[in-house]
Amino acid sequence: MDKVKVAILGGSGYTAVELIKLLLRHPGAEIVAITSRQSEHIADLHPSLLGRLDLRCEPFDPDALKSKGTQVVFGCLPHGTSMESIPPLLERGMRVIDLSADYRLRDVKVYEQWYKETHHDQKNLAQAVYGLPEVYGDKIVGAKLVANPGCYPQTAILGLAPLVANKLIELTGIVIDSKSGVSGGGRTPKLSFHFPECNESVTAYAVGTHRHTPEIEQALSDVAGAPVSVIFTPHLMPMDRGIFSTIYATLTRAVTEAELVELYRSYFADKPFVRVRTNPPATKDTTGTNFLDVCVKVVRGKVLVLAAEDNLVRGASGVAVQNFNRVFGFDERTGLM
Ligand SMILES: NC(=O)C1=CN([C@@H]2O[C@H](COP(=O)(O)OP(=O)(O)OC[C@H]3O[C@@H](n4cnc5c(N)ncnc54)[C@H](OP(=O)(O)O)[C@@H]3O)[C@@H](O)[C@H]2O)C=CC1
Ligand SMILES: CC(=O)N[C@@H](CCC(=O)OP(=O)(O)O)C(=O)O
């Protein structure tokens, strides 16, 4: 089988370099182009790629990408920028897996409310598939535009899916307390991520306003078949990478921890990247992998879910490759195990 020809947008960023490393190991993918506003060799932008990929970054030009035979483009751009770049790629018949948030929320009004930006590509929003394979797996097969999920939402959605699918918790007032490493904010410099600002310190941010709230609610409402509402609070942790979420919900009936562990094991039995554990996971257990580790506990009548992942792999580039595998008919695990 010929390799699928791949292009990547936003070459200098963190998700791009993770994606490049994963795709270099993928037997069915060939990177034919990387775009960047910087006309540099990719190994000058990311020295870890020295000797592994001999490619100079190029300016974004949809016709040039098409002329190289590109079949799929991974967008590793900030939200807002992504929706400007993607329409001409789709028009030229290339598929897109977008790592930004621009195509995740089905309701454009919800996007504009939470992102405080006008959505410029409602046409393609209508055909986008939310790329969380464990929930929307069949819809991703052959999709033209995949909206890769956010990093935090994956821990919350997968952590809660078995409970909401089985109506075991109240669907309002679910509390999601999440912590992220600093790479979650990308490579582009921001003051709050400057080493002396965030090292040896922990803080919450975007309290009550974080844009992942509606994304979590949209997916969990799909799983529940009824509206779900959550209180989501992210925290910045002085570590390079990793996300840890502690989730609290109220049980609708008495159930033992052993029954819940069994439920989680059976719900994720055919989902190779979700590992159900009986002890609390640690971010380090998942570093550099596409695994999302989850543990469920019952404490004083409440259910607690503890979930950990690597924000750059499972939270972004790894799940993007998982989606690539689904779109092009590879085994879901290809290049990721
Ligand atoms: N970091 C994470 O953990 C996660 C990130 N995401 C999402 O993935 C996307 C990429 O994130 P990440 O790699 O971390 O971000 P980075 O800031 O590390 O990289 C984004 C890249 O996009 C390019 N870029 C930035 N601004 C513009 C602009 N105005 N116009 C054109 N290109 C621009 C730059 O590349 P160049 O200079 O080469 O042009 C930049 O390096 C974002 O949408 C992010 O929200 C999703 C899940 C997790
Ligand atoms: C630590 C940190 O700043 N994290 C980022 C998460 C970014 C991300 O993955 O989200 P999108 O793809 O939805 O932008 C944030 O909270 O904005």
TrEMBL record:
InterPro entries membership: AGPR (IPR050085), AGPR_dimerisation_dom (IPR058924), AGPR_type-1 (IPR000706), NAD(P)-bd_dom_sf (IPR036291), Semialdehyde_DH_NAD-bd (IPR000534)
Entry annotation: catalytic residues: C151
Family: Belongs to the NAGSA dehydrogenase family. Type 1 subfamily.
Catalyzed chemical reaction(s): N-acetyl-L-glutamate 5-semialdehyde + phosphate + NADP(+) = N-acetyl-L-glutamyl 5-phosphate + NADPH + H(+)
EC number(s) per entry: 1.2.1.38
Alphabetical GO biological process terms: L-arginine biosynthetic process
Chief location category: cytoplasm
Function: Catalyzes the NADPH-dependent reduction of N-acetyl-5-glutamyl phosphate to yield N-acetyl-L-glutamate 5-semialdehyde.
Gene that specifies this protein: argC
Protein's cellular compartments: Cytoplasm
Top EC group: oxidoreductase
Record keywords, A-Z: Amino-acid biosynthesis, Arginine biosynthesis, Cytoplasm, NADP, Oxidoreductase
Pathway(s) per entry: Amino-acid biosynthesis; L-arginine biosynthesis; N(2)-acetyl-L-ornithine from L-glutamate: step 3/4
Gene source species: Gemmata massiliana
Keyword Coiled coil appears in the UniProt entry: no
Alphabetical list of HAMAP family matching this protein: ArgC_type1
UniProt protein name: N-acetyl-gamma-glutamyl-phosphate reductase
GO cellular component terms attached to this protein's record: cytoplasm
A Pfam family that the UniProt record links to this protein: Semialdhyde_dh
GO-annotated molecular function: N-acetyl-gamma-glutamyl-phosphate reductase activity; NAD binding; NADP+ binding
Semialdehyde dehydrogenase NAD-binding domain boundaries: 5-143
